[in-house]
Each structure stands twice: as C-alpha cells, then as structure tokens.
Amino acid sequence: MKLVNIDYLPNEEISEVLGIVKGQVVQSKNLGRDFVSGLKTIVGGEIISYTDMIKEARQIATKRMVDEAKSLGADAVINVRYGSSSVMRGAAEIIVYGTAVKVKKK
What is the model's pTM? Predict the structure, then answer.
C-alpha cells in the first residue's frame, strides 16, 4: 500500500477515488513512567517514554487506516495527514486520514 502526503501519485494515474479513510487511537503510559516523566520536566530534555508512546500510537493509527483502505480495495492512500491532541494528562489521541484510491493498471 502506497502512502503519500501529496494529492497525486507520481508516474501513476488514479483510476478511482474510493473515499476518505482514517485510523485513530488514544494511547497512554503507565502511572510509574508518568511520574518519572513529570520529574524530567523540572530539568528539561526529551521525555523518551512519551516520544515512544506517540511513535507507537502513530503506527497503530496508520495500520488501522491502511486496513480500512484495503477493505475498500485501494492501491494507495493519498494526501495523508496526521493530527494529535491531548485527551487527558499522559494520554494522547493520534488520528491519520487520507483519500483511498485505485491506480490504473499498466
């Protein structure tokens, strides 16, 4: 499955637009890591456990979007965009969306 954040596929022709597909997840870290991360804010620097949490959430959301696109028979998802928001302390929502398309076969 091709995923691009532009509205076309270079060197390929779109034969059919199937519609918007999306994936989302709300992810959190455990309380112990949240406490240690809170201490990190005092001295500054990257909070690696949160970086890892967001990376994992992005992967889950992307897989869910790809699965939805595959269920429609898509060959690619164009114009892919990510968004995030804080749901509560220590938890974030990640959403990814794009347009599922079929590619003209050569």
Answer: 0.83
